[in-house]
Design brief:
The complex is a heterodimer of chains A (438) and B (294). Chain A has 438 residues and is an alpha/beta fold. Helix content of chain A is 45%, strand content 14%. In chain A, helix 2 links the parallel strand 1 and strand 2. The chains are: A alpha/beta (438), B mainly alpha (294). At the A-B interface, helix 1, helix 3 and helix 14 of A face helix 1 of B.
Chain lengths: 438, 294
Amino acid sequence: MKKFNRALVLMMTLALVIVAAACGNSNNENASGGSASASSANAKEVKITFLNSKGADIQAKLEAAAATFKKANPNIAISIISTGDGQSPVEMASTLYASGTAPALIMLDAGDISKFQDKAADLSNEKWVADMAQPNQIAGKTLAFPFSIEGYGLIYNKAVVDKAVGGTFDPAAINTTSSLEELFNKIQATGVNPLLIGSMDWSLGNHFLALAYAAQPDGDVVNYLNGLKAGTEKIADNTAFQGLMNTFDVMKKYNAGKKDPLAVTYEKSAAAVAKGEAAMTFNGNWMYLELQKSNPTGEFGFIPVPVGNQAGDKANSAIAIGATKQVIVDKTQNSEAQQAAAKKFLEWIVYDAEGQDFLVNQVGVIPAFKNITLQPKDSLAVSIKAYNDAGKSIAFAGNYVPGDHWKVLGASMQKYLAGKSDVAELASDIQNYWKTAK
Amino acid sequence: MISEKHRGKRIGNQLLFTGPAILIFLAVILVPFVYGIYMTFFQWDGVSSTMPFVGKDNYVAVFQDGKFWQSIWLTIKYVFFMVILVNGVAFLLASLVTAGIRGQHFFRTAFFTPNLIGGLVLGFIWQFVFHNVAVNFGEKFGSSLFATSWLGDEHKAFWAIVIVSVWQYAGYMMVIFVAGLMNVPKDIIEASTIDGANAWLRMRKMILPLMVPSFIVTIFLSLQRGFMVYDVNFSLTKGGPYGSTTMASMHVYDKAFRSYDYGLGQAEAFVLFFVVALATVLQVYFSKKLEVEA
């Protein structure tokens, strides 16, 4: 009996020790930056982690890039982790911070960078800062590495629209709400649906509605949003908002999915445009991957969303473009060596031929750096780059809104799309949201 | 062996068996629960290194958050219909598969299977059914009920969630009912048959009273699962269309992880905990009174 007891106690203790050791171990590994030394290299191997929040599309490509990078830098090992489906980057990052295993490189949505101000290393002295197309500063410091530039507008199928206008269609011809309606009419006359509006809340809330914030006369999004928060700006009386909603009404009128507007998913809208069943949809250049699934050889381009009937208005012929995904380097839970390795990887992406190839050719993003001369391959990215180079761009206002904006006001936009509310109700939803926004 | 003389030894022996369970319970239930309550008195965005004390502000905000009470009310409505339908359907299925029909073992397995599919996967499957299959069916046969996607209409989307939940849980509750039905003593049924009781009378006066313990379990389980619903809600409607099917759990999650307001999210979670605890305790208390001895 006694023996039996002692054996059990021993086993229990052992089990506890193992558990404790396992916990301690993982901590240890991260803090010291990995203790395993590569036999081939003399220096100790530095292990860092990269949090990818751009989804499964680029996960494999990032892993391949990390392997390529390791060939040139044998003592730096980068492991790539990814956010879960539907999980926000902040949520994942805060979990990792809480468990003391913050990645050295964290890819965040642009709007969230300011939350990490006290955790992000100052990157102002990095070489690539001088080569950025637009400055990217918070409180006078460059805290984040712009991973990609993205833009959105009305995506059109070139073949379908060319046929409707009888010749090569020039998107610059669409610079007012009425010219857009004319084009819809022409397309409808050829027996094709003019457009199919996707009902995704993120698209309607953070992209479409955000156009109203970006299309302000002075183009200063932050200033306008502060006005909304303070209650000095009334969205219902705003010209850009009214113009945008007029355009939305026209879009609703010609929407192929108007019988059941909220059943149009992202995939459905992409497939319809790719197959030529609808000429246009509202979305961004990331949709190319989805379009390609239904039509690998199709050519697509962007038409700006007009916000009024003044042909000369800049916002009427500009696409919303911005650096949506940005990478910060953590300085609170990563050692100096790890931070240095992380910075080296960022530099490699911008200046190494293989890094540039990864960014532009593999992942297919539009780089935010002037020194990268590789041309994007897909037609949507080419279109964005053309607008950007010509200076025909307004702010990607979704980068400046709080994390729940897409869900709360996306729902209000859906309600409007479904015809269950009017402009006055939508405007009061927006006003109320900003009153309580943090 | 259990009744050790020495007090220390007795406690040691007890700890040997219950210790690991207590340890895990403390670590994953009790400590987070208490820490959660602690967090309701602070304002925190999940990232910031400072966490200012705000006192009762979060609780005041809970009572001012109209959307939260809307979601609670919707959840109560959902639980009401779901509990009735799940238990009703499950009891019918259980009676069917114990009635001695051919292939009843096959049917038992078949009805139970949906419960083996995770709520998320299930939601995606049914999303396809409501978005594509039902709409195609509606267009083909000119049925106006199915002509547009159920998930695009706020009332139908609510019923879509109820239907999927019933489909998911009915098989599970059926298994509990089957066990209960098999334990109804054959002799009293036989005796009542000889006394001339018809099937309906037997069901009402004999079987149902003896099944009360099973009902207590199934109603408790479905109540609790109904209040906590998240996965089906998330994968089927994502709270849409236009936020009309956001249940309480989803609202709490959104407050904490989308609005980055952990304090308020926790406070709302705590209120939700009270609602659920109250409902289940009341249910168990009242249904215990209905129990009878055979």
